[in-house]
Design goal:
By secondary structure, this protein is of the alpha/beta class. The protein folds into 2 domains: about 60 residues, Helicase, Ruva Protein, domain 3; about 190 residues, Rossmann fold (3-Layer(aba) Sandwich), CATH 3.40.50.150. Helix content is about 35%, strand content about 20%.
Length: about 280
């Protein structure tokens, strides 16, 4: 058996992780059902045999590169604990910039919003947590993702969110919205980062797109105008080097007031425009 402190010292074994100490803290909190503050309050607490065996298995899987979110089955986004699995992307902190931007640009109490490619439901549910009277529709083409997003919606208890299976706009008929948001696939199929880190364990269909990662963004921009109300707002997340290309696509399809917002590292991440 080992103590909390001794197990945390094994962070040195996570040579490929950007945050090895935090990884182990999260795994121990998950395993013991305790908070990070508890770990620091009781560093000499000894794990029992079963707990230590479970920790060894989790550590082995993490050393092999499996994401912490998959090991614990959850990831916090916008202070909401969301269930995650291999059917969707793991929510990233930078996507919260999209949520912040929508809230800043749409202070009104009644908005009809569409979240395209919702995955875990992170964006839709984050917005629902802030705007109880917005009517939010979230869609995904993958049945497993739809089921996961609906499970997260039910746990959070947001009655103003509807989850649907749809290949982008295919199941929406003539529905119109005031705001459309999306974190679509935007990685080039030849990008070497696809063979590194957490993305190795995430669905390729949610990551990559043709045309150097721009194909789905182009499709969304082309079709969204037909589903937006007058002066409706379209926002998409994209790669940090794609800002200029996405602005050009938005302008090509007639969007006005096109601009790009930065992520927390100061890189171009969210492009928006109005009909």
């Amino acid at each position: 058996m080992a103590t909390v402190k001794e197990n945390l010292q094994r962070a040195i074994e996570l040579t490929e992780s950007d945050s090895p100490r935090l990884d182990l803290e999260v795994l121990l909190c998950h395993l013991l059902g305790k908070s990070r503050a508890w770990l620091y309050t009781w560093p000499e607490h000894q794990l029992n045999d079963d707990q230590q065996a479970d920790f060894e298995q989790l550590l082995k899987r993490r050393i092999a590169g499996e994401p912490v979110a998959h090991l614990t089955g959850s990831r916090e986004f916008w202070s909401l604990p969301l269930k995650v699995n291999r059917s969707t992307l793991i929510p990233r902190p930078d996507t919260e910039v999209l949520v912040e931007t929508v809230l800043a640009l749409c202070p009104q109490d009644t908005v009809r919003l569409l979240d395209l490619g919702t995955g875990t439901g992170a964006i839709a549910l984050a917005l629902a947590s802030e705007k109880k009277h917005w009517q939010i529709t979230a869609v995904d083409t993958m049945p497993a993702a739809v089921a996961l997003a609906e499970e997260n919606r039910a746990v959070q208890g947001f009655g103003n969110v509807q989850i649907l299976q749809s290949d982008w706009f295919s199941a929406l008929g003539g529905a119109t919205f005031d705001v459309i948001v999306s974190n679509p696939p935007y990685i080039d199929t030849q990008d070497p980062h696809l063979r590194q880190g957490d993305v190795r364990f995430e669905p390729v269909s949610a990551l990559v797109a043709d045309e150097k990662g721009l194909a789905d963004i182009r499709k969304i921009a082309a079709q969204a105008a037909g589903h937006l109300s007058e002066s409706g707002l379209l926002l998409v997340e994209h790669g940090w080097e794609q800002g200029k290309a996405v602005r050009n696509i938005f302008s090509e399809y007639g969007y006005k007031d096109v601009e790009t917002r930065l992520d927390y590292a100061g890189r171009e991440r969210i492009t928006l425009g109005r009909t």
